[in-house]
Amino acid sequence: MQTQIINGRKIRDGILAEVKEEVSKLPFVPVFCDILIEGDPVSLQYVEMKARTAESVGIKFRNATFPSSITTEELVFQIENLNRVPHMCGIIVQLPLPSHIDKQTVIDAIDHHLDVDCLGTVSSDKFYVNANDIGFPTALACMKILDSIAIDTTDKNIVVLGRGTLVGKPVAHLLETRGLKVDVVHSKTENTEELMKNADIIISGIGSGKFITGEKVKEGVVIIDAGTSEDNGSVVGDVDTVSITGKASYLSPTPGGVGPVTVAILLSNVLKVAKKMK
What we know:
This protein is α/β, with parallel strands linked by helices. Helix content is 40%, strand content 17%. The chain has a six-stranded parallel sheet, sandwiched between helices. Strands 3-2-4 form a three-stranded parallel sheet, sandwiched between helices. A two-stranded antiparallel ribbon has the order 9-10.
């Protein structure tokens, strides 16, 4: 079987083209801010990439970089100021944060109307009762990739690996909202191997490098890999691409799959906020 590799960058480019066109119609320039605490070069790379992408579609990027010595209270104060910046249409916090900072307190300081990562308590609660038109970007990216494949998902065995905040939990919710049957596999699941072997579709976000091998899945499986981990200085996904190639019918790999689409969805969330401000 020939495995079709899903090109996340192509899907990203399609979304960004639409965002750019819609942004150009706005009567103002929307502002987007990714808060960065100094000290992590990988986080800095991610922020710089999001800044470039935002600017490329006509969204102004607001730089907000703070020293690693900043306290939770000081950071909350800074976020409250950012909430009031004219035409601010999205604020996110680059994770992970230093251990001395209370992550949820900081995220909850973001005005929930500007919470384009959907990680704040208000936004998250609204998402899980389908009352929020802004969702978790990585989970929405997984769904966008799934929708890009010409397959009928009805009555398919769908397995979500992991139940984390960013991928597993929201992806399972989005699938169930469509009326699809989903098995969520986590560390305490006893029949993991059986569920994986019977899965028609696997969406993985466990961050366990090359966990999914060809021998663990059935012929023709569709795999969307949203996991990231480090292997000898390189970013790898949850899928062992070598052994999966030729076994899966479709594969969205890491890198180049979910990641690029996630950034595009994030900026489409910024656009949604901007449209409400008109």
